[in-house]
Amino acid sequence: MATCDLSGRKVLITGGARGLGLKMAETLAGQGAAVVIADIDAEAGAASVAALADQAHHVSFVHLDVADDASWEAAIPDVLSALGGLDVVVNNAGIEITELFVDLNPDHARKIFDINVVGTMLGVKHAFRTMRPEGPAGAGGAIINIASVAATIAFPGIAAYSASKSAVDRLSRVAAAESGRMGYGVRVNAICPGLVPNAMGAQLANDTAELGLFGSTEEAVGAVVSLTPSGRLATEQDIADAVAFLASEDSAFINGVALSVDGGMGM
């Protein structure tokens, strides 16, 4: 695990109750940050906070539906109360539904875009409002949006997800430009993770095999590895370390980029 000094950082991570978001919370808190996990699943969020508290980390939970503007309005005061400010927002919450174009369910596509794109945009909106000079935190900061290697490659079966993550990449660049023009003092970057063999990644491999795109789950995973010059899948720690870097002063002049953490898969 790479180490950045995040002492004094006040961090909000959406979708933090499990998977990548939870590993991000553990990593950033372990490097000195105070972290609020925000998630729609209150039970999982409470359990995750309890587990991290046992490791002496400063982590708390707020309930948040990222696609609901009113939910953001209600959550931000609780975040500020828990942290005493806010200077890093990680828009990590997202979903993936695997479908062939010929079977595309428009309701599924709308749900993906509502959470992955609208949810991220609302995260940027409320981060800007909170961290800009006239906001209640008011000291600037950093936003880190989680996109995907799917934004940079054409992988069958994930059209809506790929499109949504391409949107996250582009909106992050627009947000960085807007923050600079408006004098908010907030850097905005995206991370494009490679496939991670966690629950979400395993489901994708299973789904693509069930759709007939690959002969088996193992073949699907092998196809991803074969496209990756580093010769392996990503780990949750790989992605969390990149988040920690972009949240730290080590990346103070990095702004408006999409950082690929994919072992070269998307190059």
Describe this structure in words.
This protein is α/β, with parallel strands linked by helices. It folds into two domains: about 10-195 and about 235-260, NAD(P)-binding Rossmann-like Domain (Rossmann fold, 3-Layer(aba) Sandwich); about 195-235, no CATH class. The relative contact order is 0.15. A seven-stranded parallel β-sheet has the order 3-2-1-4-5-6-7, with helices on both faces. It has helices at about 20-30, 40-55, 70-85, 105-130, 160-180, 200-210, 215-225, 235-245; strands spanning about 10-15, 35-40, 60-65, 90, 140-145, 185-195, 260.
Topology readout:
Elements lengths: L9 E5 L4 H12 L3 E6 L2 H12 L5 E5 L5 H15 L4 E4 L14 H26 L9 E6 L12 H24 L3 E8 L5 H12 L6 H10 L9 H12 L10 E4 L6
Parallel strand pairs: 1-2, 1-4, 2-3, 4-5, 5-6, 6-7
CATH superfamily of the largest domain: NAD(P)-binding Rossmann-like Domain
Number of domain units: 2
Per CATH, which architecture of the largest domain?
A: 3-Layer(aba) Sandwich
Query: Which fold does the CATH topology of the largest domain refer to?
Result: Rossmann fold
Largest sheet: 7 strands, parallel
Q: Give the overall average pLDDT.
A: 95
Rg measurement, Å: 18 Å
- The spatial strand order of the largest sheet comes to 3-2-1-4-5-6-7
Say how many strands there are.
Answer: 7
Question: Which oligomeric form is depicted?
Answer: single chain
Helix content: 40-55%
